[in-house]
Write a structure and sequence with these properties.
alpha+beta; Aminopeptidase; 8-stranded mixed β-sheet
Length: about 270
């Protein structure tokens, strides 16, 4: 009975602790959440080894076995953070590993970019000679409404996906703006990298801003970023056979034709 009460109270304390830490720091909360999981696995292993009674001592042994594993994960996370913050390892394999294994990393908190004055990760913003390009979030809805921005369903689709999966932040729509804050179009990727670390790029400008070189400028900037700051190894694209303007954009962005069908031309640029 005592053992049962101790386990219930311990579980409650762990849940409260992990919830509070996760609220303050998603990455650290992810590490702490591994403790009860590892402890449970250890507990089951000890019982399988011949323990007939799930006594308090068995439970404590399972927790003690889980602690070293948890500290090991935490140490690896600290190392990943140090590599992640360096100029060499941006969006490195370390970050990818913890995104998949811990499952509670938030890309908004851990993604590329310098820290701002509050010590928080700043969202990536690309600056070119004439344009500012950054990932679209829910905070941009007011701006888009004020400017009566209508350029297809891609932005709304991206915001819907982002609401349920924060890791989509950099793999959907990015807004393309002039230096005075006028949204002239959107550009972005059509999902996260696939199994061979390839992404498909798409873009569209408002009619009033076509034929000014904005599309080429934006495509080049985004491809340079994804190659320099992530593990992506190939950027793909496709255009209508008759869309000469888009064909010229991709050619200037150094993509090459790799195939076609009765409607589209397929393009690729390797890292």
């Amino acid at each position: 009975m005592i053992a049962f009460l101790v386990k219930v109270l311990s579980s409650a304390v762990v849940i409260v602790l992990v919830t509070e830490v996760a609220r303050r720091s998603p990455s650290l909360g992810g590490v702490l959440s591994a403790l009860p999981v590892v402890s449970l696995i250890s507990f089951a292993w000890l019982v399988k080894q011949g323990s007939e009674r799930t006594e308090l001592s068995t439970f404590l042994k399972s927790v003690l076995l889980g602690l070293p594993a948890t500290f090991f994960i935490a140490s690896c996370l600290v190392l990943a953070h140090s590599l992640r913050d360096s100029c060499v390892f941006q969006y490195s394999w370390c970050n990818e590993f913890f995104l998949s294994s811990v499952g509670m990393f938030n890309v908004i908190y851990n993604s590329g970019g310098r820290r701002n004055g509050k010590g928080e990760k700043a969202m990536v913003t690309l600056q070119t000679e004439r344009l500012t390009i950054y990932p679209c979030t829910a905070t941009d809805v007011t701006r888009l409404q004020q400017q009566q921005y209508e350029n297809g369903p891609e932005v709304q689709h991206h915001l819907t996906l982002l609401a349920s999966d924060p890791l989509m932040l950099y793999w959907g729509s990015w807004l393309v703006m002039t230096k005075d804050g006028q949204v002239v179009g959107d550009i972005g990727f059509k999902g996260k990298p696939d199994s061979r670390q390839a992404v498909e790029i798409g873009y569209g400008l408002l009619p009033a801003f076509l034929n000014r070189g904005f599309a080429t400028e934006a495509v080049r900037a985004l491809i340079d970023w994804v190659f320099d700051q992530t593990e992506v190894k190939a950027v793909l694209a496709k255009t209508d056979l008759t869309n000469q303007a888009s064909i010229r954009v991709l050619e200037k962005a150094e993509l090459i034709q790799i195939g076609s069908d009765d409607r589209y031309i397929m393009w690729e640029r390797l890292k």
